[in-house]
Amino acid sequence: MRLRPPRPEDFHSPAHTPAVTARLGLWLGVAFTVCFLTGLASHAAQHPPGWFTWPTRPISLYRITQSAHVLSGVAAIPLLLAKLWSVYPRLFIRPPLRPPARLLSHAAERLSILVLLCAAFFELASGLFNAAQSYPWRFFFVETHYAVGWIAAGALAVHIGVKLSRTGTGLAERPDPRRRAILRIAWLSTGAVVLATAGATVPWLSRVSVLAWRSPGGPQGLPVNRTAAAAGIRVPAHWSLTIAWPGGTAQLTLDELAALRQRTATLPIACVEGWSASANWTGVPIAALLTAAGAPTGRALRVSSLEPAGLYATSLLPARHAADPLTLLALRVNGQTLSPDHGYPCRIIAPSRPGVLQTKWVTRLEVLP
User: Fold this and answer.
1) Which UniProt keywords apply (predicted)?
2) Cβ pair 245, 366 in contact under 8 A
3) Which pLDDT tens digit goes with each residue over 21-46?
4) Are 112 and 118 a contacting pair, CB within 8 Å?
5) Model pTM score
6) Does residue 325 sit in the same domain as residue 186?
7) Which of 177, 205, 233 is the last residue of a domain?
Protein backbone atom coordinates (compact mmCIF):
# COMPACT_ATOMS: atom_id res chain seq x y z
CA MET A 1 0.00 0.00 0.00
CA ARG A 2 1.42 3.33 -1.07
CA LEU A 3 1.55 5.98 1.63
CA ARG A 4 0.54 9.55 0.79
CA PRO A 5 0.32 12.79 2.77
CA PRO A 6 -3.08 13.37 4.38
CA ARG A 7 -5.52 15.64 2.59
CA PRO A 8 -8.06 18.05 4.11
CA GLU A 9 -10.92 15.85 2.87
CA ASP A 10 -9.53 13.02 5.03
CA PHE A 11 -10.59 14.87 8.17
CA HIS A 12 -14.28 14.50 9.00
CA SER A 13 -14.45 15.63 12.63
CA PRO A 14 -16.84 18.54 13.31
CA ALA A 15 -13.92 20.21 15.08
CA HIS A 16 -12.40 20.98 11.66
CA THR A 17 -15.33 22.99 10.31
CA PRO A 18 -15.37 26.76 9.63
CA ALA A 19 -18.07 27.34 12.26
CA VAL A 20 -15.87 25.91 15.03
CA THR A 21 -12.64 27.40 13.72
CA ALA A 22 -14.09 30.90 13.40
CA ARG A 23 -15.47 30.93 16.93
CA LEU A 24 -12.27 29.59 18.46
CA GLY A 25 -10.35 32.19 16.49
CA LEU A 26 -12.62 34.95 17.75
CA TRP A 27 -12.15 33.93 21.40
CA LEU A 28 -8.41 33.54 20.92
CA GLY A 29 -8.22 36.96 19.27
CA VAL A 30 -9.98 38.54 22.25
CA ALA A 31 -7.58 36.83 24.68
CA PHE A 32 -4.54 37.93 22.67
CA THR A 33 -5.84 41.51 22.38
CA VAL A 34 -6.48 41.82 26.12
CA CYS A 35 -3.07 40.30 26.85
CA PHE A 36 -1.31 42.66 24.42
CA LEU A 37 -3.04 45.86 25.61
CA THR A 38 -2.53 45.09 29.30
CA GLY A 39 1.07 44.18 28.50
CA LEU A 40 1.52 47.65 27.03
CA ALA A 41 0.02 49.08 30.21
CA SER A 42 2.44 47.10 32.36
CA HIS A 43 5.39 48.28 30.28
CA ALA A 44 4.20 51.88 30.54
CA ALA A 45 3.92 51.56 34.32
CA GLN A 46 7.45 50.18 34.65
CA HIS A 47 9.19 52.13 31.86
CA PRO A 48 7.07 55.22 31.17
CA PRO A 49 8.04 57.44 28.24
CA GLY A 50 8.89 61.04 29.11
CA TRP A 51 5.43 62.33 28.19
CA PHE A 52 3.50 59.81 30.30
CA THR A 53 3.04 59.15 34.00
CA TRP A 54 1.19 56.09 35.27
CA PRO A 55 -1.82 57.25 37.34
CA THR A 56 -2.14 56.73 41.08
CA ARG A 57 -5.88 56.16 41.02
CA PRO A 58 -7.63 53.86 41.31
CA ILE A 59 -5.19 52.41 43.81
CA SER A 60 -5.66 48.89 42.39
CA LEU A 61 -5.26 49.91 38.74
CA TYR A 62 -1.96 48.10 38.22
CA ARG A 63 -3.25 45.11 40.16
CA ILE A 64 -6.22 44.85 37.80
CA THR A 65 -4.34 45.38 34.54
CA GLN A 66 -1.49 43.02 35.41
CA SER A 67 -3.74 40.23 36.64
CA ALA A 68 -5.81 40.63 33.45
CA HIS A 69 -2.58 40.40 31.46
CA VAL A 70 -1.48 37.15 33.07
CA LEU A 71 -4.91 35.53 33.19
CA SER A 72 -5.69 36.36 29.55
CA GLY A 73 -2.34 34.79 28.65
CA VAL A 74 -3.28 31.68 30.64
CA ALA A 75 -6.66 31.55 28.89
CA ALA A 76 -4.96 31.83 25.50
CA ILE A 77 -3.07 28.56 25.99
CA PRO A 78 -5.99 26.08 25.74
CA LEU A 79 -7.67 28.31 23.14
CA LEU A 80 -4.54 28.29 20.97
CA LEU A 81 -4.25 24.51 21.22
CA ALA A 82 -7.93 24.10 20.35
CA LYS A 83 -7.60 26.47 17.38
CA LEU A 84 -4.56 24.56 16.09
CA TRP A 85 -6.44 21.28 16.39
CA SER A 86 -9.31 22.79 14.44
CA VAL A 87 -7.24 24.15 11.53
CA TYR A 88 -4.33 21.73 11.21
CA PRO A 89 -5.87 19.75 8.28
CA ARG A 90 -5.52 22.89 6.17
CA LEU A 91 -1.78 22.78 6.70
CA PHE A 92 -1.70 19.85 4.27
CA ILE A 93 -3.13 21.93 1.41
CA ARG A 94 -0.62 22.05 -1.39
CA PRO A 95 0.24 25.55 -2.61
CA PRO A 96 -1.14 26.51 -6.01
CA LEU A 97 1.57 26.61 -8.65
CA ARG A 98 -0.36 28.82 -11.08
CA PRO A 99 -0.89 31.67 -11.41
CA PRO A 100 2.22 33.08 -9.66
CA ALA A 101 0.15 35.70 -7.81
CA ARG A 102 -1.79 32.96 -6.00
CA LEU A 103 1.43 31.18 -5.11
CA LEU A 104 2.85 34.38 -3.61
CA SER A 105 -0.37 35.02 -1.69
CA HIS A 106 -0.33 31.47 -0.32
CA ALA A 107 3.33 31.82 0.71
CA ALA A 108 2.67 35.16 2.45
CA GLU A 109 -0.26 33.64 4.33
CA ARG A 110 1.78 30.64 5.50
CA LEU A 111 4.68 32.90 6.53
CA SER A 112 2.36 35.11 8.62
CA ILE A 113 0.96 32.00 10.32
CA LEU A 114 4.46 30.71 11.06
CA VAL A 115 5.52 34.05 12.57
CA LEU A 116 2.30 34.27 14.59
CA LEU A 117 2.65 30.74 15.98
CA CYS A 118 6.32 31.16 16.89
CA ALA A 119 5.71 34.52 18.57
CA ALA A 120 2.57 33.30 20.37
CA PHE A 121 4.22 30.16 21.75
CA PHE A 122 7.28 32.18 22.83
CA GLU A 123 5.14 34.76 24.62
CA LEU A 124 2.95 32.21 26.39
CA ALA A 125 5.82 29.92 27.39
CA SER A 126 8.12 32.71 28.59
CA GLY A 127 5.22 34.33 30.43
CA LEU A 128 4.53 31.10 32.31
CA PHE A 129 8.20 30.78 33.27
CA ASN A 130 8.17 34.39 34.47
CA ALA A 131 5.09 33.78 36.59
CA ALA A 132 6.96 30.89 38.19
CA GLN A 133 10.09 33.05 38.55
CA SER A 134 12.12 30.57 36.54
CA TYR A 135 14.48 31.97 33.91
CA PRO A 136 16.28 29.21 31.96
CA TRP A 137 17.65 31.73 29.45
CA ARG A 138 20.23 34.49 29.26
CA PHE A 139 18.18 37.30 27.70
CA PHE A 140 16.42 40.00 29.75
CA PHE A 141 12.82 38.84 29.97
CA VAL A 142 11.09 42.25 30.12
CA GLU A 143 12.63 43.73 26.96
CA THR A 144 12.42 40.50 24.94
CA HIS A 145 8.84 39.73 25.98
CA TYR A 146 7.82 43.28 25.08
CA ALA A 147 9.52 43.19 21.65
CA VAL A 148 8.11 39.79 20.67
CA GLY A 149 4.68 40.98 21.83
CA TRP A 150 4.74 43.59 19.07
CA ILE A 151 5.76 40.92 16.55
CA ALA A 152 2.86 38.72 17.66
CA ALA A 153 0.43 41.64 17.45
CA GLY A 154 1.59 42.51 13.94
CA ALA A 155 1.37 38.93 12.73
CA LEU A 156 -2.10 38.63 14.29
CA ALA A 157 -3.26 41.78 12.48
CA VAL A 158 -2.02 40.37 9.15
CA HIS A 159 -3.68 37.02 9.84
CA ILE A 160 -7.00 38.67 10.70
CA GLY A 161 -6.84 40.72 7.51
CA VAL A 162 -6.20 37.63 5.38
CA LYS A 163 -8.89 35.52 7.07
CA LEU A 164 -11.52 38.19 7.73
CA SER A 165 -14.00 37.16 5.03
CA ARG A 166 -13.64 33.45 5.83
CA THR A 167 -14.09 34.18 9.54
CA GLY A 168 -17.26 36.12 8.82
CA THR A 169 -18.63 33.20 6.83
CA GLY A 170 -17.77 30.78 9.63
CA LEU A 171 -19.42 32.95 12.28
CA ALA A 172 -22.56 33.20 10.16
CA GLU A 173 -22.76 29.40 9.98
CA ARG A 174 -24.85 28.00 12.83
CA PRO A 175 -23.02 25.15 14.60
CA ASP A 176 -24.89 21.86 14.98
CA PRO A 177 -25.08 20.04 18.37
CA ARG A 178 -21.78 18.18 17.86
CA ARG A 179 -19.95 21.41 17.06
CA ARG A 180 -21.54 23.17 20.01
CA ALA A 181 -20.31 20.35 22.24
CA ILE A 182 -16.75 20.90 21.00
CA LEU A 183 -17.02 24.64 21.67
CA ARG A 184 -18.38 23.97 25.17
CA ILE A 185 -15.41 21.71 25.90
CA ALA A 186 -13.06 24.49 24.79
CA TRP A 187 -14.88 27.02 26.99
CA LEU A 188 -14.89 24.71 30.00
CA SER A 189 -11.20 23.87 29.57
CA THR A 190 -10.29 27.55 29.36
CA GLY A 191 -12.45 28.41 32.36
CA ALA A 192 -10.93 25.58 34.40
CA VAL A 193 -7.38 26.72 33.65
CA VAL A 194 -8.19 30.33 34.57
CA LEU A 195 -9.99 29.27 37.74
CA ALA A 196 -7.04 27.08 38.73
CA THR A 197 -4.66 30.06 38.60
CA ALA A 198 -6.78 33.14 39.35
CA GLY A 199 -6.40 32.76 43.12
CA ALA A 200 -2.96 34.32 42.81
CA THR A 201 -4.64 37.69 42.45
CA VAL A 202 -8.32 37.14 43.38
CA PRO A 203 -8.29 36.42 47.13
CA TRP A 204 -11.70 34.73 47.33
CA LEU A 205 -10.57 32.17 44.74
CA SER A 206 -7.34 31.24 46.50
CA ARG A 207 -8.77 28.07 48.06
CA VAL A 208 -9.92 26.62 44.73
CA SER A 209 -7.01 27.79 42.58
CA VAL A 210 -4.85 24.71 42.90
CA LEU A 211 -2.29 25.99 40.38
CA ALA A 212 -1.95 29.53 41.75
CA TRP A 213 1.74 30.45 41.64
CA ARG A 214 1.65 32.48 44.85
CA SER A 215 -0.05 31.69 48.15
CA PRO A 216 -1.07 34.15 50.89
CA GLY A 217 1.66 32.70 53.10
CA GLY A 218 4.95 34.38 53.87
CA PRO A 219 6.27 36.72 56.55
CA GLN A 220 3.52 38.86 58.06
CA GLY A 221 0.89 37.33 55.78
CA LEU A 222 2.40 38.53 52.49
CA PRO A 223 4.27 36.60 49.80
CA VAL A 224 7.88 37.56 49.07
CA ASN A 225 9.66 37.48 45.71
CA ARG A 226 13.14 38.48 46.85
CA THR A 227 14.28 37.82 50.39
CA ALA A 228 16.76 39.94 52.33
CA ALA A 229 19.26 37.08 52.24
CA ALA A 230 18.96 36.71 48.46
CA ALA A 231 19.45 40.46 48.03
CA GLY A 232 22.53 40.47 50.29
CA ILE A 233 21.06 42.99 52.71
CA ARG A 234 23.12 44.12 55.69
CA VAL A 235 21.46 46.85 57.75
CA PRO A 236 24.10 49.01 59.50
CA ALA A 237 23.85 49.18 63.29
CA HIS A 238 23.51 52.96 63.10
CA TRP A 239 21.32 53.12 60.01
CA SER A 240 19.83 56.44 58.99
CA LEU A 241 17.85 57.64 56.01
CA THR A 242 19.51 60.24 53.81
CA ILE A 243 17.31 62.79 52.05
CA ALA A 244 19.17 64.83 49.45
CA TRP A 245 18.07 67.65 47.20
CA PRO A 246 19.83 70.34 45.16
CA GLY A 247 21.40 72.54 47.80
CA GLY A 248 20.82 70.44 50.92
CA THR A 249 20.72 67.11 52.73
CA ALA A 250 19.16 65.71 55.87
CA GLN A 251 19.46 62.50 57.83
CA LEU A 252 16.87 60.84 60.02
CA THR A 253 17.30 57.82 62.24
CA LEU A 254 14.66 55.12 62.52
CA ASP A 255 13.52 56.56 65.86
CA GLU A 256 13.15 60.01 64.30
CA LEU A 257 11.11 58.57 61.44
CA ALA A 258 8.88 56.72 63.91
CA ALA A 259 8.37 59.97 65.85
CA LEU A 260 6.89 61.72 62.79
CA ARG A 261 3.16 61.67 62.21
CA GLN A 262 2.23 58.25 60.80
CA ARG A 263 -0.50 57.24 58.39
CA THR A 264 -2.02 53.80 57.78
CA ALA A 265 -3.32 52.85 54.33
CA THR A 266 -4.62 49.62 52.84
CA LEU A 267 -2.73 49.13 49.59
CA PRO A 268 -1.97 46.14 47.36
CA ILE A 269 1.39 44.73 46.42
CA ALA A 270 0.94 43.78 42.76
CA CYS A 271 3.83 42.04 41.04
CA VAL A 272 4.59 41.64 37.35
CA GLU A 273 4.17 37.87 37.70
CA GLY A 274 0.45 38.52 38.19
CA TRP A 275 0.04 37.79 41.89
CA SER A 276 -1.14 40.45 44.31
CA ALA A 277 -2.12 40.83 47.95
CA SER A 278 -3.40 43.69 50.08
CA ALA A 279 -2.02 44.77 53.46
CA ASN A 280 -2.28 47.58 55.98
CA TRP A 281 0.85 49.71 55.70
CA THR A 282 1.89 52.31 58.28
CA GLY A 283 4.50 54.96 57.68
CA VAL A 284 5.25 58.58 56.87
CA PRO A 285 3.70 60.08 53.71
CA ILE A 286 6.55 60.96 51.36
CA ALA A 287 5.32 64.52 50.84
CA ALA A 288 5.13 65.11 54.61
CA LEU A 289 8.56 63.54 55.08
CA LEU A 290 10.14 65.88 52.53
CA THR A 291 8.47 68.88 54.15
CA ALA A 292 9.71 67.84 57.60
CA ALA A 293 13.27 67.53 56.24
CA GLY A 294 13.11 70.92 54.53
CA ALA A 295 13.31 69.41 51.05
CA PRO A 296 11.31 70.64 48.07
CA THR A 297 8.14 68.75 47.12
CA GLY A 298 6.32 68.25 43.85
CA ARG A 299 9.32 66.62 42.16
CA ALA A 300 10.35 63.11 41.20
CA LEU A 301 12.56 61.13 43.57
CA ARG A 302 15.33 58.62 43.04
CA VAL A 303 14.95 55.90 45.66
CA SER A 304 18.04 53.88 46.60
CA SER A 305 18.11 50.58 48.44
CA LEU A 306 20.66 48.89 50.68
CA GLU A 307 20.74 46.16 48.05
CA PRO A 308 24.31 46.20 46.70
CA ALA A 309 23.34 45.15 43.18
CA GLY A 310 20.30 44.28 41.11
CA LEU A 311 18.08 45.71 38.39
CA TYR A 312 15.77 47.33 40.93
CA ALA A 313 18.24 48.42 43.61
CA THR A 314 17.15 51.96 42.67
CA SER A 315 13.84 53.18 41.32
CA LEU A 316 12.30 56.41 40.12
CA LEU A 317 9.28 57.66 42.04
CA PRO A 318 7.41 60.04 39.71
CA ALA A 319 6.30 63.43 41.00
CA ARG A 320 2.64 62.39 40.86
CA HIS A 321 3.27 59.41 43.12
CA ALA A 322 5.61 61.35 45.42
CA ALA A 323 2.89 63.95 46.00
CA ASP A 324 0.11 61.42 46.60
CA PRO A 325 -0.89 61.33 50.30
CA LEU A 326 -1.10 57.51 50.16
CA THR A 327 2.52 57.10 49.05
CA LEU A 328 4.34 56.11 52.24
CA LEU A 329 7.79 55.40 53.51
CA ALA A 330 6.43 52.37 55.34
CA LEU A 331 7.82 51.24 58.69
CA ARG A 332 5.13 48.70 59.59
CA VAL A 333 2.83 46.22 57.86
CA ASN A 334 -0.31 44.69 59.34
CA GLY A 335 0.53 46.29 62.69
CA GLN A 336 4.04 44.84 62.91
CA THR A 337 7.50 46.25 62.29
CA LEU A 338 8.62 45.35 58.79
CA SER A 339 10.39 42.00 58.65
CA PRO A 340 13.74 41.94 56.82
CA ASP A 341 12.11 40.21 53.84
CA HIS A 342 9.51 42.97 53.56
CA GLY A 343 12.05 45.79 53.60
CA TYR A 344 13.19 46.59 57.14
CA PRO A 345 14.02 49.28 58.15
CA CYS A 346 11.70 51.01 55.65
CA ARG A 347 10.30 50.65 52.16
CA ILE A 348 8.27 52.51 49.58
CA ILE A 349 4.60 51.64 49.21
CA ALA A 350 2.56 53.63 46.71
CA PRO A 351 -0.89 53.22 45.12
CA SER A 352 -1.16 51.67 41.65
CA ARG A 353 2.52 50.81 41.29
CA PRO A 354 4.34 47.65 40.12
CA GLY A 355 5.75 45.62 43.00
CA VAL A 356 9.30 45.71 41.60
CA LEU A 357 9.22 49.50 41.98
CA GLN A 358 8.00 49.42 45.60
CA THR A 359 11.63 49.59 46.70
CA LYS A 360 12.59 47.76 49.89
CA TRP A 361 15.44 48.45 52.34
CA VAL A 362 15.43 52.16 51.50
CA THR A 363 18.53 54.09 52.51
CA ARG A 364 18.38 57.27 50.38
CA LEU A 365 15.77 59.56 48.82
CA GLU A 366 17.11 62.02 46.27
CA VAL A 367 14.87 64.86 45.10
CA LEU A 368 15.58 65.38 41.41
CA PRO A 369 15.85 68.87 39.88
Assistant:
1) Membrane, Transmembrane, Transmembrane helix
2) yes
3) 999 999 999 999 999 999 999 999 99
4) no
5) 0.91
6) no
7) 205
